[in-house]
Amino acid sequence: MRLKERILEYMRHEAYKPVSDEDLAEGLHLTREELVEFWNVIEELEKNAEIIKTRHDKYGIPELMNLVVGKLSMTSKGFGFVIPEVKKSETDTDVFIPASLLFSAMHNDRVVARVNEPGSGGRAREGEIIRIVKRANTKIVGTFESSQSFGFVTPDDPKIGQDIFISKKYFSGAKIGTKVVVEIIEWPQARRSAEGKIIEVLGMIGDPGVDILSVIRHYDLPLEFPDKVQAAADRTEAKVSAEEYKGRRDRRNFHVVTIDGDDAKDLDDGVYVEKRPNGGFFLGVYIADVSYYVKENSPLDLEARERGTSVYLVDRVIPMLPQRLSNGICSLNAGEDRLAMAAEMEIGSDGQISSYEILPTVIHVYRRLTYNLVKKIVADHDEQLINDNTDILPMLNDLVKLREILKARRTRRGSIDFDLPEVKVKLDEQGKPVNLIKREGSLAESIIEECMLVANETVAEHMDRKQQPFMYRVHEQPTAAKIDKLNDLLAAFSLHINKNSEDDSVTPAQLQEVLQKVAGKPEEKIISTVSLRSMKQARYDAQSLGHFGLAAKYYTHFTSPIRRYPDLIVHRLLRETFKTGTIMEPRREKLKVLLPEIATHASQRERIAAEAERETVDMKKIEYMAQFVGDEFEGVISGVTAFGIFAELENGVEGLIHVSSMENDYYQYVEEKYALVGERTGKVYRLGEPVTVVLVNANIEERNLDFILKGNGVYIPVKSKKKIIAEVKPDKKKPQQIIHQPNALSGETKKPKKKTGKWYNAVDKKAKPKKDGAAYGKRKNKTTKK
């Protein structure tokens, strides 16, 4: 155990009060060498707020001192919550911080908060921020405005909550109404705004590409590779040489195929299957051997580690590795020899793996297939395509059979499948959205998913049983509080999940059983949605903690090293075991420190990538929907809050119906029923129920949609000969801007005349109408990635 961990362990479990550094050193019985290191470690721990130094020069653990260390999550209304990094118990809630007690902290800052009032009955604790440990927003993206002598930038992220003051000497050529990146040079104080200087002008609002570029800069995603990284990539050979076949199993005679999306260019994985006479199968999963080309601590490796993952935005891919590798020598391109890491498995007719081998290989991809092509062959039985692919038809049919066996095996052990459709936005050459395509998972995608899942499990179990340092993909148990909340809902349908009396745990099979019981019933949508929200997020860890959603005791990510850094680490660690079967002790000690750090960073980068991807898709969804203001749509209630309900349309777009627009009653939020209930009428709007809505506002700048309920809301459009294409909410501080887009349905390309709509307070019809549907915030679903 490292000295840092020893100090924290001692202070949490043996020291019953804050202690001086001398008493701490004495209690730990440090050696002379450890004593030299001790003072630096104490300083680092105190600087990171892992321990707190009192005014009497003693050290304590924050959670034992009525303090909470964590990330500040702000709201657009000016208050925030500190999300604890460490909890004394599962019942510890986030800490509510009112605007007056923020201590100049900003969204996402890492802070120390003092708890002033304990929470009760699920209510958040309340407190104040007493220290800012680390600032998060060194660069901010926003819109520039100016007067003659000074300017300010209004952040795109409403959670930032305050404009950034810009001295005239730091305008850097920015014009009014441009999107800019500002660097903070003075942090906010009690009565002073933050100050900054403009370091990049992105372009005018509405110019092609500026919206996506703003998101890229907001999340600080790197578009270009550093020169030394690109130079290292350029030196990589374009072809595999015969010398590199040594020490590898030759699998070039196997008809390995890749199956990916139509537009995929970085092809990580290929598969090959043979039916055995005993009813079982041989399955070979062949993964690009990226670790052969990307050596540890090389410029390519350090850059890939920092990026963590490739990012798939709505209009582009920001790769983890330069294209010469990701689309070239590492990509399993058809007709080319490629180096691969393989998991070859003998699988019985019951789905159990009787034997396996993990080994380096050389392959020659026989054919590149796509999900659409395979679907047409094995599901739609397209005669022409079947005739064109008779050479691989037997293997495709065997893959279908193997998929059924593997899926049945997962189902038997309790694996939970949430079938979440993906919405793909189709853009034209100018980056304008022209269509929304809702894609459900097809049989072809399920084939590849099952092959990759069984390979990931096999590799994870292999390394865990050998007790080697490794990188795992883990998905932990839902908390007892989440299960209790789910049970409150299930009780209304005479269902219940029994928790283990000893540790309050549940099994995946219990949750799967509930979902199977409601399949096809009206309550399926609400129970599936709440069940999904009860799940924790999957993450990376150096410990094998299992995967709850997959009901898998062992799981890792082995199959995508071109686009995920943890997969590259998995390959590297496997390679280190090939010669001797184990990793040597000095190396193991280094990995004990290195792997947890990589796992934490990779998990963070994964979440940043997911947020950026979702934000660009949502942005284009709203831009697309702006042409349909005033139109009716069928939808499903996807969220319920005290301020209104969210509705999701059939095309995957989501918008808010504010409670103030509901005209026939006063509505109260009943949390345990996930519903708004009318006081007089008893009308219930509940999660999962169908609704008919009218789109009344599509606010591209603030990225939200407003609906009203058909028959329970008032929308009075102003008559116009031409349909509105888009409208941005007026801002009193700024000149009104109207952004237009060609009508994708009618083919209209001329600039249309402005049209506005008004909607009234739901209860008091005499109230003055508002100019448009105000922005009330946006709910974000937390989904679990396998």
Automatic annotation (TrEMBL):
It comes from Propionispira arboris. It holds the Pfam family S1. One of its GO terms (cellular component) is cytosol. Residues 630-710 form the S1 motif domain. Its EC number is 3.1.13.1. It catalyses: Exonucleolytic cleavage in the 3'- to 5'-direction to yield nucleoside 5'-phosphates. Belongs to the RNR ribonuclease family. RNase R subfamily. This is Ribonuclease R.
